[in-house]
Amino acid sequence: MRVHSWKTTAVLAVAASLALVVGVASSQAATSTGGTRVDVGPGGSDLAKLPLTDRDLTDREKVNLAVVLRAYRVAEGNSLDVPAYVEGFTKDGVFNDMVAGRTYRGKAVGDVLTTMAGIYPDVHRDLRKITVDGDVVAVELSIQGTFTGTLPTPAGDLKGNGAKIDVPTADFWYLRNGKIEKFDCFVGFTAMYSQIGVTIDWEAAVGGR
């Protein structure tokens, strides 16, 4: 199946227009997922706007997709809602920054959003390809934004220089009963640092042996 590239704005528009709102009762058809009421959707017309590898989704898969899309929407710099993001996880849910080797649990999963927004206040995610397989949602995307904030480093804070980033990323969401149980995120940090003017000093590294 041919997969097209889509603009972030189109994807987020679908997410914003979904009738899927976790924990909020709706007049539309809904399914119960472990005590949390989640509306079934998105519908066929909504699915057509998404970069899905397969649009023939079960109701359960549509619910999982909507939960993930909502997480992306509330993580955007222009619509940042950390409590809503945290609420989308199970009580024992975890966020794994696979490249940096860091794990966040509970309310700390929201720290990732505030840190990223502190570095790139206009941060947004351009979702390129979405695959839904049962309780797993895999997303190929690019993290984009402008470096106008402050990046904490072991050598001190690095002030923003207005550089634009477009960083290849892969996200894997694992859901249980309409909530995010685990989120594994693979960010191309090497590309990100290069784009903001930070280079690895191999000569100093070799010389320091």
Average of per-residue pLDDT values: 83
Percent helix: 25-40%
How large, in whole angstroms, is the Cα Rg? 18 Å
**CATH architecture tag:** Roll
Beta-strand content: 25-35%
The total count of strands amounts to 10
Following the backbone from N to C, one meets helices and strands in this order, namely HEEHHHEEHEEEEEEHH
Give the number of helices. Answer: 7
Shape from CA axes?
Answer: elongated
Structural class, by secondary structure, is alpha+beta
Domains (count): 1
Q: Which residue ranges are poorly predicted, with pLDDT under 50 across at least 5 consecutive positions?
A: 1-41
Structure report:
This protein is α+β, with helices and mostly antiparallel strands. It has a single domain (8-197), classed as Roll (Nuclear Transport Factor 2, Chain: A). It is 28% helix and 34% strand. The radius of gyration is 18 Å and the shape is elongated. This is SnoaL-like protein.
Short account of what is shown:
The protein has helices at 8-17, 44-47, 59-74, 82-87, 111-119, 189-195, 202-207; strands at 30-33, 36-39, 89-97, 102-105, 124-133, 136-146, 150-153, 156-159, 164-176, 179-187. With 209 residues, it is of the alpha+beta class.
